[in-house]
Amino acid sequence: MAKVNFTAARVDAHRCEPGRFTEKGKPIKQSFIWDSKTPGLGLRATVGGAKAYVFQGLMHGSTVRITIGDPRSWTIDRAQERARHFQMLIDSGIDPREHEAEQKAAHEERLADKKRQSVMVEEAWAQYLEHLRTKISPKTKKPRSDRYILDHINLSSPGGGIAKRGGKEKVRGPLAPLMTRRLSEITASCMADWLEIEITRGPTNAAHAFGLFKAFIRWCETHETFAGVVSPDAYASPKVKGILPRSVAKDDCLQREQLSVWFSAVRGIANPVISAYLQGLLITGARREELAALRWQDVDFRWRSLTMNDKVEGTGGRTIPLTPYLASLLLYLQRLNETPPNKRQILRLAQRGEQWEPSEWVFASKTASDGKIAEPRHAHNRALAPTGLPHISLHGLRRSFGTLSEWVEVPVGVVAQIQGHKPSAIAEKHYRRRPLDLLRMWHDKIEVWMLEQAKIKFEP
Question: How far, in whole angstroms, is CA 16 from its chain's centroid?
């Protein structure tokens, strides 16, 4: 291995001439010259014209070769210094290749950590929402509901713009101030300051938002990009827990003596769809989204049943009885739904390139974007305002069904099965499979009792 003193002229003149072969007849694709001043430093030239400084040494009897760099970027002095550094590592028992790999990994880790520290909460939040949409819930083993995803979107919304309903300006969600922060800035002090402000705007909403954000932080710990950026102390610190408002379970519920006033007010609502819907919530004890999503194909008037898309039972849904009074309300809605518009309205539809057809939804709405009832709370609150009744939420009507059914001494398991609650005991879970006709017997008794208390005369 001939050695020469590296000079700029020799480095520039070094070439690998094409058409040369080894003694065994193999073509020579690269040519080396070695520096006499620095052990192990060489200059490699390929047939294609590329050049690079290289280092070659012996470690434990094996040849170690590392590329230093292009002569156009590296001066001779710097290449010699680099070669001496590699030789020092070998003399110390360190493989330069492993050392370089460790250096590269440490550099990449620093870059990744710097990127993690600069990532914004809204960026990680967007990935979290995508995770919620596409992954199965580990708790329920089912996809998350649209309503659950919408809660996350609304609570993190920056607000602004005009709402479709009411025409008022949209207010920001309680999580909106956190979205504009870096993920690394989410500390116990940050969460405490945020909670103090949001509690004044609404303690219940702030507590709900805190719960969702706490789950988000836990998810970040499992994500390879965001792990270690936010400390669990951000939500578990005594400083934060001391500020967090205590959640108070709602207990709004209709009493027996209030039924006549409530039914009178709700039956007086001008919109028959909203009136029937509210009465249906009380009579069935269904969740508001379940009943609102009822289609005509889910209603069986002959065998008196309703099939609801149950969040517990899953896509198969649950089938409950259709009681006589509620059936009469739905039959009236069906007649309205199947009555075609007048000629003038049909002409207007034709001018827009549309054709009239009955709605698929039982509780249809011409103004809602998806065609079904969306927000009946306002009509409910307006109807109850002059009655003097305490505030009753839509979920309070579901709670009322479960409470008032005790007056009829209905078995608890029957009420739970109608409402779509999970079985609360081993016997209920594994040994009770009540058929529809047995549920119907008890459900009819509940409705008859409600109508008697409301002083409504109804002949099936």
Answer: 61
Q: DSSP state, 226?
A: T
Predicted confidence (pLDDT) per residue in 81-115, tens digit: 999 999 999 888 888 888 888 888 877 777 766 66
Cβ(316)–Cβ(307) below 8 Å: no
pLDDT tens-digit map of 287-332: 999 999 999 999 999 999 999 886 555 445 789 999 999 999 999 9
Tally of helices (H runs) and strands (E runs) in the chain: 20, 8
- Rounded to 5°, the CA angle 13-19-24 comes to 115
pLDDT (tens digit, 9 = 90+) per residue, 369-412?
788 998 899 999 999 999 999 999 999 999 999 999 999 999 98
Euclidean distance between CA atoms 219 and 226, whole angstroms: 9
Of residues 283 and 203, more confidently modeled:
283
Three-state SS at 30: strand
Contacts of 145 (CB under 8 A, 6+ apart): 289, 311
Alpha carbon 56 to chain centroid, angstroms:
55
Other residues' Cβ atoms within 10 Å of the Cβ of residue 438: 14
Neighbours of 383 (CB within 10 A): 21
CA–CA separation, 168 and 161 (whole Å): 8
Distance of CA 385 to the CA centre of its chain: 37
Helix (H, G, I), strand (E, B) or coil at 138: coil
Note whether 3-116 and 256-453 share their fold: no
- Residue pointed to by tokens 């170690």: 64
Structure tokens at 207: 């507590």
The owner of tokens 């505030």 is 391
Q: Does domain 256-453 have CATH number 1.10.10.10?
A: no
**Residue given tokens 């080894």 in the structure block:** 22
Please name the amino acid found at residue 311.
K
Q: Is 170 exposed, middle or buried (0-12, 13-18, 19+ CB in 10 A)?
A: middle
For the chain, domain boundaries? 3-116, 121-243, 256-453
Q: How far is Cα 115 from Cα 227, in angstroms, rounded to an integer?
A: 12
Element containing residue 321 per DSSP (H, E): strand 318-321
CATH 3.20.20.140 corresponds to the domain 3-116: no
**CA–CA distance, 173 with 430 (Å, rounded to integer):** 43
Which residues does 176 contact at the CB level (< 8 Å), separation at least 6? 156, 157, 158, 159
125: closest CA among 12, 217, 55? 217
